[in-house]
Amino acid sequence: MKKQLQFLIVLIFSFTCHLGFAQEKTVSGTVNDTDGLPLPGVNVIVQNTNRGTQTDFDGNYSIEVSPGEVLTFSYVGFTTETLTVGEANNYNIILQEDASQLDEVVVVGYGTQSKRKLTDNVAKLTAEDIEEVPVPNIQSTIAGKAAGVQIAPTNGKVEGGVNIRIRGIASIGAGSEPLYVLDGVPLINNNESSNGAPTNPLLTLSANEIESIDILKDASAAAVYGSRGANGVVIITTKKGKEGRSSFTLNYSYGISEPTNEMEWLNADEYIELFTEAAVNSFGEQDGTEYIEGIFDFLAGDTDWRSREVDTDWQDLALQSGHVQDASLSMSGGNEKTTYFFSGAYNDTEGIITGNDLERINSRINVTHSFDEKFRAGMNTSFSRTEIDRIANDNAFVNPIQAVAQPAISPAYLENGDPNPNTLYPNFLLQDKHAFYKTVIRRITGRAFGEYSFTDNFRFNSDFGYDLYYQTEDSYTGRLAPFQSTNGEGYASSVGTESYVASNYFTFSEQFGSAHDLEVVAGMEYNQSNRRFQSITGIQFPTDDFETISSAAEITGGAGSESANSFLSYFGRVTYSFLDRYLFKASVRRDGSSRFGEDVKYGTFPAISAGWIVSEEAFLEDSDVLSFLKLRASYGETGNANIGDFASLGLFGGISYNQRPGIAPIQASNPQLTWESVNQLDLGLEYGFFDNRISGEIDYYVKESDGLIFNEPLPGTSGQSSITRNIGVLENSGVEFVLNTRNVQTDKLSWNTNFNISRNINEVKVLPDGQDVVSGQTILREGEALSSFYLIEYAGVDPDNGDALYYINEDGGGRETTTDPNEANRIIAGQPYADVIAGLTNTINFSGLDFTATFVGEWGASIYNGGGIYQSANADFFDNQTRDQLRRWQQPGDITDVPQARLFGGNGTANSTRYLQDADFIRLRNLTIGYTIPDALTDEIGLEKFRLYFTAINLLTFTDFDLYDPESVSDAGQGAGVAFYSAPSARTMSIGVNINF
Questions:
Q1: What is the pTM for the complete model shown?
Q2: Is the pLDDT assigned to residue 74 strictly greater than 60?
Q3: N or C, which end of the chain is more exposed by having fewer CB within 10 Å?
Q4: Please, are residues 525 and 465 in contact by the beta-carbon 8 Å criterion?
Q5: Are 777 and 862 in contact (CB under 8 A)?
Q6: Distance between CA 236 and CA 251 in Å, rounded?
Q7: Domains within the chain, CATH numbers bracketed
Q8: Residue 694 CB: number of other CB atoms within 10 A?
Q9: What is the pLDDT of residues 561-604, one digit of tens each?
Q10: Could you tell me the CA-to-CA distances from 844 to 394, 742, 857, 948 in Å, in that order?
């Protein structure tokens, strides 16, 4: 018995020693993401055991483990990593974001939803998609990243307007811009410019403060915003703090800019040659030569044009090399009670057009605090100030780009260095020296919110949002500036628009057993906007050193107005899933707006959608090929209320008659004016293959806009020129295709590709009495695309005599030609909007190197060169000509598309398809190459991350378009798709640094 007891003791001791040997090792380390930020709450499990731990707020972990055992590191939204424990005691882990994970969260309005269970069409962009793109507007950072979303910059001015078209244009007379919602606050997005060219109101936002952008494309997604969701909804979510230690991020970049393209113009030799020939052709050898040499004497001033003393490159004076400087600093962090995010940003942009600059500062504070388990509250606040040195609109003679019309033999400056005042057209350099136009935009946005949870699945949210857009414009035109006949003229204006919104809603979410998942949202919202505008003009200043209105001797003009509008809304949404694969959603919103007629102020906007995750079915769940397949369909109605504040009312205005005050009617009333409504059907398929190494979406949609709002002309006897009515039907239909691939995924190398392409067909379905509406070079016609180009057709040049020819296009299909443009009939020759748009993004990471390239492409649009009748007119007047006019007809038998040069001859200068061009292009929108210094080096200097990068915008453009830019059109209201001395986009190349500490 004693021996047995001794044997048992030895056995227990040996076993205990063996256990002690096996478990005596403690392993520790940190877990970070690819940006070097710690990940709290990461599960650290010993494989095939129930032993494990979690990382703390700083990403640290510690666990007892035996050599040879395997640790598994897992975290929601990141790929799972494994590690076999060796002799070392410290292991630092970096988790990669799981790009294939379809459970990412999207913002859908008054809540969020899992992408996997989404039955709507929502495109999501993250901070990585939009940061480090050196442009002053956030819209341009989206280009090429979302299917069916077209980004259309007006031209190359730093403040230029940017149009986002989501699945085409849904309106003719009301606004076509989407609704922008910043942290739950609908943003003011009105163009308040007074100089004839639009500004972009969203210039006030900085990309560094944005966490994500969710674009709601179909009616089911946008219907919760009801009356303002017809053109889609862009939900912008700003960054927030996370639990854990404080993190500081610094980004700085500096770049140079240049025009993406310059046109070729005649030099002095070519100008003299062409215009001498044109004068001789028109007036004969002797008279023509004598006449044109007198003109040359005038244009050359005191210089000798015969010896070619002057050969001015006016384009080189109008366009310049600019720069972009961008800096931002942010701090974030928090604990289990309070999280915070602070940021500041500075942008300094010198444009590529002489005299066009922008400077902006931004700051943001986001704070959230949990008072207890039931109640949390917070505040998001931002301030920005944007100052813009502006130039004239495209239709003004003093616009720098119009300088290309000046002959090369005219000197730009006098001998004393002053700009030459004796040029063919006003010299923009005089305007640049003796005048200015400055716009300053100050913007404050804020949101205070509270959330009270009655139970774990029932809560109440109350939000109050505020948006203040305050703009001042000041200009002064000195006595030596062009067109100035007085001793200086000053102008000052201010406009303040404030919008506040109060939202209150309940959210109930519950899982019933393992099969049912239900969420219900119901609430109300009130939105009030007030606008006040005032301006004053004065002349006769003592000297040009006094530039403010207070120094004007005479006040010659003034204006002032106030307006307001309000929306009262009730909304509800029900989301239900059965067995996590049968998905249903229904929503409804009822909106009332002060903008509409007394009896039709309210509109109801319902939507319904459903989805089926087919890959969850038993017959597919074990598939090694198909990893995800979802079918979805939606149908709903949204509205458009982007019209004037008092559009339905009969208005009177104050007038002066014989210096006596009075009132007069200024607007006809229409008490039946109501919402434009957009009905949209969407059918979609989402797919994933090979563990989602290949994934994407396919969508088909039909979007019909009914009750289109625009001004209908009235007979003169009515006393009013027009009345605003609901007239007409417009349809957009199309398909979208998205393909995401993870081409290579190894420990050191990853290569991901996103490709999207969409086609949109736009058609005017119904117009009043079926009548065409012609405006300039465009037409609205039933059965045709919106604002189609309506022009006589250029037939080329008669090889016998150099006459320009036009097709008569008689009924019956005749193709006879004429030299008289008045005998030719107009045809529909193209459309201003692309019907196919695409984007391709490749992202590669290899051992600290990162590479991203985004291409965008557009096909099917045309641009009409409104300046062509002056600048490409085979020397019809004295404007300098594009160099292609040198291939003009000169003798019988010449085959060319440029007619004979005839001064004042009007030979081929009619508005025709001669000046219409296809605007197809492919552009390398963004290229970024970066290098992140290894952790071993950054740890020594106390940094979490140090990254150097190079970024280029609009680096390459592939196009047959031979004007300045296939994306640049007039900003002076000359019609859709019309270019008129419109500046090209900027090509910007920057180097920068990211530092996290």
A1: 0.87
A2: yes
A3: N
A4: no
A5: no
A6: 21
A7: 14-95 (2.60.40.1120), 139-260+318-787+831-873+908-996 (2.40.170.20)
A8: 18
A9: 999 999 999 999 999 999 989 999 999 999 999 988 888 889 89
A10: 41, 10, 21, 16
